[in-house]
């Protein structure tokens, strides 16, 4: 199976600033964030304490075997490029090891920056939707404002009202979704925020539906038609996607895909990669 050429991908797929670059980060997700012993992590770790597997070069010592080691939670986390922004821009390339006095501020800024970068990622995708032309002006204004916020100093970034920015962008994203899905013929289901945990949805025609914010944990979506479906914020952990068609799905992220269970017949958007733990295509 060949990969699509870069020229065939929408512009947001080429935004390297919105993709994690661990080589340019100080391992912030492995230090700043807490995790609790569970199905996703084998141990407890408080915020601000480096993970025991974090090496001196800020790289993960068990990256190639995270799932086998019980760190599934790490494999489905995406900072959307916030790690390198905080490391290289906000703190000018000075890490928490070299400058311990910056550590606390760095750990406070990182989760805020991650949320802002997530908003930028969604805005960038919406700006690539031709059908969403009527709201492109508003999307561009919010995108540029959020981008400017990410370039503030540590104190300014930490003080950003993320909820207000999310609400401002959320209305535009919903309208962009409606405009894009309006081009899909036939009935378009609205299951926003629905509790579909463990639901039997095998083979269901959900093309152009809204599953925004839906709880699909463990749901059986095998062979389902999810083309052009709005999946913004949908919880797909352990959802069975064998044979499902996700081409053109709106606002689907790599982390959502990584948390699901697909197979060699699952069709994924050209902007995302097939998770390494899925069986390969035949």
Draw up the topology in text.
Layout: H1 72-75, H2 82-90, H3 103-127, H4 136-150, H5 154-158, H6 162-181, H7 254-259
Helix pairs in contact: 2-3, 3-4, 3-6, 4-6
Describe this structure in words.
The chain has helices at 72-75, 82-90, 103-127, 136-150, 154-158, 162-181, 254-259. The protein is mainly α and 282 residues long. The model has no long low-confidence stretch (mean pLDDT 95).
In short:
The protein has 282 residues and is mostly helical.
Key features of this structure:
282 residues, mainly alpha, 7 helices
What general form does the structure show?
A: globular
Q: How many β-strand stretches?
A: 0
The proportion of strand residues reads under 5%
Series of H and E elements: HHHHHHH
Quaternary class: single chain
Percentage of residues in helical conformation:
25-40%
Largest sheet: none
């Amino acid at each position: 199976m060949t990969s699509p050429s870069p020229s065939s991908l929408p512009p947001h797929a080429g935004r390297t600033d919105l993709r994690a670059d661990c080589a340019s980060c100080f391992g912030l997700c492995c230090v700043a964030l807490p995790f609790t012993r569970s199905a996703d992590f084998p141990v407890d770790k408080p915020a601000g304490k480096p993970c025991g597997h974090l090496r001196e070069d800020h790289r993960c010592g068990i990256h190639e075997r995270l799932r086998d080691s019980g760190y599934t939670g790490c494999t489905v986390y995406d900072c959307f490029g916030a790690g390198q922004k905080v490391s290289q821009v906000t703190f000018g390339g000075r890490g928490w090891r070299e400058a311990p006095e910056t550590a606390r501020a760095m750990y406070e800024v990182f989760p805020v920056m991650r949320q802002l970068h997530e908003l930028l990622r969604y805005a960038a995708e919406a700006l690539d939707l031709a059908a969403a032309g009527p709201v492109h002006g508003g999307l561009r204004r919010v995108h540029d404002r959020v981008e400017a916020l990410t370039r503030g100093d540590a104190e300014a970034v930490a003080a950003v009202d993320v909820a207000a920015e999310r609400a401002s962008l959320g209305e535009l994203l919903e309208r962009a979704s409606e405009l894009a899905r309006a081009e899909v013929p036939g009935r378009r289901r609205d299951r926003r925020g629905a509790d579909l945990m463990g639901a039997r949805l095998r083979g269901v025609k959900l093309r152009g539906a809204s599953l925004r914010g839906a709880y699909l944990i463990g749901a059986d979506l095998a062979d389902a038609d999810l083309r052009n479906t709005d999946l913004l914020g949908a919880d797909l952990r352990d959802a069975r996607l064998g044979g499902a068609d996700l081409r053109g799905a709106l606002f689907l992220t790599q982390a959502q895909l990584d948390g699901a269970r697909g197979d060699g017949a699952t069709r994924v958007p050209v902007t995302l990669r097939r998770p390494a733990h899925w069986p390969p295509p035949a």
